[in-house]
Design brief:
This protein is mostly helical. Helices cover 65% and strands 1% of the residues. A two-stranded antiparallel sheet has the order 1-2. The longest helix is centred in the C-terminal third of the chain and has 39 residues. The radius of gyration is 25 Å and the shape is globular.
């Protein structure tokens, strides 16, 4: 049986499982579509939340970023995991007690304003669309490698699958599908790591292998010492040393943390359990399930870097392992024979005997069209010709994308075919699970918060669900376009933009809504608009319009600017509130009520805002 056949079997079985679960859990009401009926167990919801959380950025891209960046990539590990602690301590217990189905729903009622709800809907759309771009890109990368097709075609296939079980099944279908997807992801991520740890360090526990002894060559040096030596020998900085400025590292980590606590598609997962006590139990389970993946990612990144260098560096192209040609054919890896010796040479700026090196900086080389005659695509040394071949200022000969390292790692390590097939199924599960959760938030924000609460209050339940499904279809179309034409070179960076948007908009507004009973609607609206506008403008200028690096504010890159946007949100909200007075008395009582421990909702929480101080139509 070939590797491709085994891949198709594993992925086909997983797809069949997801579709069957979604079909059997099809939402029959708006309550089931939005919150799965509110009866999901803490254990199941913890597993589903972990699957929703561990996106393509985590599963596919993060370990690749660790492999390339080393210590600097810890910003993702610290930011995403630390942010989840903020989310579970500061946000979800209070939001669950408030009893609303979506984040814009909470903001609209807490700040007694349709305008606040509308601004929250716009913020949710910005955040979720940016996030889902990365997921669609991840789906495209995996399908491209699996089927030997282009990434755009892979994105379209993934979009159709997501719509089939997310747009139709709602939260109820997504929840139980994500339980299955987490199981696939957990096994797919850890089993290859165990195999590789055994081969390289003789240790069955990957984390202990990372800090243990490297034994693959019969030696006995510490693994990290071996890894640092490989890097410095090739002219790169030590793997364990940091290259990013302290200010930028701090801002990116803080933006990821605060953005996590403001992500609407993660927050809404905790509305599916019965009560606040179940929320806390669900959060504990979620952190446990997330730890399985996040504690393994650094090991995969480090192992894959050693495997890549030992398998490829200095190897004659004609003698390269078969997997390299497969990844090269789909554009995920590339080689340009800069010095004409027919060997693949990978080196950093400090490797003086081969000229002045400048790594590709994440810019993928451009291939000629695949229908071009073969003699127009192959160079004199047998390499596949690239547009970057003419770039004499960049003599480094090997390019590989961050997003391919996890998939390439078991090939490089020579693992059994079934392990590779399982990993491929896990990669797809990671991207699809988060894409489904994001799609649901997008559709409910439009159907429930925009159409039902603002535009057409007399909307029936059936019409509301229909609007949600139509919104899902449109949102997937837009996401597919940006998955084909992504705003960033790799998935984790694209997703980091979404966290910056969440940090600058939702995090301060939710935090003030929970802990500052006097914060009024004017302050909240002004803060959200100021925070997200600044963040979007900064990202667009430096990421899309390619603003010069010397103009960066304090050297902060677009991934970290959400932290500054968050501070602007807080400052504007408090300033505007100081000139416009406190929130109405009944709103202050409502906020105070959610801090009182109680197993039951009080009358204050159940009642709707009154005309003399409630929603005023602004």
């Amino acid at each position: 049986m070939t590797q491709d056949t085994l891949n198709f079997i594993f992925i086909g079985l997983s797809f069949a499982l997801y579709i069957v679960i979604a079909a059997r859990s099809r939402a029959g009401s708006t309550e089931e579509y939005y919150t799965a009926g509110g009866g999901v167990s803490p254990f199941a919801n913890g597993m589903a939340t972990a699957a929703d959380w561990m996106s393509a950025a985590t599963f596919i891209s993060m370990a690749g970023t660790v492999a390339i960046s080393g210590y600097d990539a810890s910003r993702f590990l610290m930011g995403w995991t630390g942010g989840f602690v903020l989310l579970t301590v500061l946000m979800v217990p209070y939001l669950r007690k408030f009893g609303k189905a979506t984040v814009p729903d909470f903001i609209g009622d807490r700040y007694y304003s349709k305008l606040a709800r509308g601004v929250a809907v716009i913020c949710a759309i910005f955040i979720c669309m940016t996030y889902i771009m990365g997921q669609m890109r991840g789906v495209g990368v995996v399908f491209s490698q699996l089927f030997g097709i282009s990434i755009p075609f892979g994105v379209l296939i993934g979009s159709a699958i997501v719509f089939a079980y997310a747009g139709l099944g709602g939260m109820k279908g997504i929840t139980y599908t994500q339980v299955a997807q987490y199981c696939v992801m957990a096994f797919a991520y850890t089993i290859p790591a165990v195999f590789i740890a055994m081969a390289m360090t003789g240790n069955v526990i990957p984390q202990l292998g990372l800090i243990g002894t490297y034994t693959a060559d019969g030696g006995g040096v510490p693994f990290l010492t071996k890894l640092n030596a490989i890097n410095t020998e090739l002219g790169f900085q030590e793997y364990t040393s940091g290259k990013m400025s302290t200010v930028n590292m701090f801002c990116i980590t803080a933006a990821l943390m605060c953005g996590t606590a403001g992500l609407p598609h993660v927050i809404v997962r905790f509305f599916t359990v019965k009560n606040v006590r179940s929320v806390r139990r669900s959060a504990a389970w979620t952190l446990s399930f997330i730890a399985v993946i996040y504690l393994t990612a650094p090991t995969i990144g480090a192992f894959s870097r050693v495997n890549l260098i030992e398998n490829l560096n200095g190897t004659a192209y004609v003698e390269a392992p078969g997997w390299f040609y497969e990844f090269e054919a789909t554009g995920q890896m590339a080689w340009v024979d800069k010095n004409g010796d027919g060997r693949i040479q990978y080196a950093g700026p400090g490797k003086s005997d081969m000229g002045t090196f400048s790594v590709f900086q994440g810019k993928a080389p451009v291939y000629p069209t695949y229908d071009a005659p073969e003699h127009q695509r192959i160079g004199p040394s047998g390499e596949r010709l690239l547009a970057s071949k003419a770039d004499d200022s960049n003599p480094n000969e090997l390019w590989f994308g961050n997003d391919i390292m996890v998939m390439a790692n078991p090939y490089m390590a020579g693992l059994p075919m079934w392990v590779i097939a399982l990993l491929m199924a896990g990669c797809i599960a990671a991207a699809l699970s988060t894409a489904a959760g994001l799609l649901l938030v997008l559709s409910t924000s439009i159907s429930h918060d925009l159409m039902k609460k603002i535009v057409k209050p007399d909307l029936s339940d059936k019409e509301e669900v229909s609007y949600a499904r139509a919104a899902s279809f449109v949102a997937l179309g837009v996401a597919a376009y940006f998955g084909i034409n992504p705003p960033s070179a790799f998935i984790a960076q694209t997703v980091a933009f979404a966290f910056g948007l969440a940090a600058s908009s939702f995090f301060p507004t939710l935090l003030l809504g929970i802990f500052s009973s006097k914060m009024n609607k004017q302050g909240a609206i002004a803060g959200m608009l100021a925070g997200i506008s600044f963040t979007v403008a900064y990202i667009v200028y430096f990421q899309f319009l390619e603003g010069p690096a010397d103009q960066l504010l304090f050297g902060i890159t677009p991934e970290g600017i959400g932290f500054i946007g968050m501070l602007i949100n807080f400052a504007v909200a408090f300033t505007v509130k100081a000139f416009t007075g406190d929130a109405p008395e009944h709103i202050q009582e409502m906020v105070a009520e959610i801090h009182i421990p109680s197993a039951k909702k009080t009358a204050v929480l159940r009642r709707e805002p009154q005309p003399n101080g409630g929603i005023d139509g602004t």
